[in-house]
Design goal:
Blueprint lengths: L1 E5 L6 H10 L4 E4 L16 H10 L3 E4 L7 H14 L11 H10 L6 H8 L5 E5 L9 H11 L6 E5 L4
Parallel strand pairs: 1-4, 1-5, 2-3, 2-4
Helix pairs in contact: 3-4
């Protein structure tokens, strides 16, 4: 199985879907707790519209709520960003406090086998999705690392980024 990660910030709707199609994605894994976006710019990833667009492309949609950080865990990152004066969309990496809280909240009680069961045996290429532009600024990078560490079922890891 190949694992791809993608965020929405920096993508247009057409470039977003083009990127996942070109990567050969057959399973879209939504890692968000709240699956909506404010405003019209990224409305194409609001859950209902997103699922409809994926269905039209014959891409399976899976929501793994267990891998979404809680409000309390997200607050740890917000606090760290406030200390450094970093805007959410300008963040390039996650804080140590967020990583520790995320591991304790989500990854310590989740197994790679649960992930593989959720995406299905026929999944060839899964994309891990959340909103941040940079994978290292988002919990999807922690999930990707967790799955990669799980061993032999992952053949490749790729981050899809918008063109500059």
């Amino acid at each position: 199985m190949k694992i791809v990660t993608i965020g929405v910030y920096g993508f247009t709707e057409s470039a977003f879907f083009q990127a996942i199609e070109e990567a050969g994605v057959d399973t879209f894994v939504d890692l968000r707790l709240r699956r909506g976006m404010r405003g019209s710019t990224y409305a194409f990833v609001n859950s209902t519209k997103l699922q409809e667009s994926l269905r039209e492309r014959n891409i399976r949609y899976v929501h793994i709520k267990e891998l979404a950080p809680s409000k309390e865990t997200r607050a740890k990152q917000k606090s760290a960003d406030a200390v450094t004066g970093t805007a959410k969309r300008a963040r390039v990496e996650l804080s140590t406090a967020f990583k520790a809280a995320y591991h304790a909240q989500c990854l310590s009680s989740y197994t790679a086998d649960q992930f593989f069961a959720a995406v299905g045996d026929d999944c060839q290429t899964a994309v891990l999705f959340c909103v941040e532009k940079q994978p290292q600024a988002c919990h999807r990078s922690l999930v990707a690392e967790f799955l990669n560490d799980a061993g032999e079922r992952i053949e490749a890891m790729v981050d899809l980024l918008p063109e500059a």
